[in-house]
Amino acid sequence: MADHDGDAGRRTGGRGVGPGRDLVRVVEPSAWPVPTRATLREVARRAGVHPATASRALNAETRGLVAAQTAERILEAARLLEYRPNHLARGLKTRRSATVGVIVPDLTNPLFPPIVRGVEDFLVAEDYVTLIANTDNDEEREARVFDEMRNRHVDGLIVATARRSHPALLEAVRSGMPVVLVNRVVEEHAVSSVSVDDRVGIGRALEHLVALGHRDIAHIAGPQDLSTTHGRYEGYRAGLRRAGLKLDRRLVVYARALSEEEGYRCAEELLVRNASFSAILAGNDMLALGVLRSLRGRGLACPEALSLVGFNDMPFMDRVAPPLTTVHIPHYDIGFEAARLLCQQMQGADAPPQAVLLPPELVVRESTAPPARAVRTTAS
Q: Could you tell me the pTM of the whole model?
């Protein structure tokens, strides 16, 4: 009987009763029905029109050339036949693919998903699909991504990986590819971009620390080949000058990447230098998270021992311990505005490159407080 039940399991695709008999019935490919795809001619025949008329009605850009009642009849025929347009074939005729490439350095960084969401929300309303690629901040991988995007004939690129000098990016622009940068600019100013005013943002963070009574403020700067972190370093220097404070180069450490690991390394380096400071201004939130890990490992409380400010206001920065004071940038708005600029380019708008700077906002939380004691300033 047990063998019979096992056979039944094999016949029906169920589970056999014998030990280890997790049996699944394999269906031969020939047993599956092969659906046939409705063609444009079939839609036209059902609607009683010429295929060229059906093609115009099914294209949102040319639908206005067809009488409203006729277009409605064609759309209904397409719905009943479950017709799906062949975008590849249409792209060969129009030289448009209705796709946009989005290139980011690290999609696991919480900074980028809200930017990508803003991009997609704008583009989906314009009937574009996004192709998202991650470069891991690797130049060779990034070069391959640029080539693949162009080989796939994307209509435009939104790029979050730009460095201050970026030959591959400029080559894409010179080839006629519409490109918009997000959260980055390039020195050649030949590319439209959407970012925040990094100098203003870091200046507000420094003013906040000075108002609390801090005078010796360390800075963990990001890589200086990136426009964002270079601008924040320049904003730090300008903010010190405005406050009447001298730049102590012992209080500046340069991170090799915008990562928690680099924030930890830089904090450790600062804490063993022969210099006094009561606050750290981090180049971004990921670096700030590394600073917090370093302080915890040394038994130093934040903000009691050291105040800390980040930059970006990534998701969940209000839930770390302590909640991080940081400079908020409108991630979603950056992506949305970048997609708008790109669509203008893709639709043939003849306009010079635009550099859009959105306003940053300081968000004060619990990682900053007045210094616990007077800090001795040591000139470099």
A: 0.74
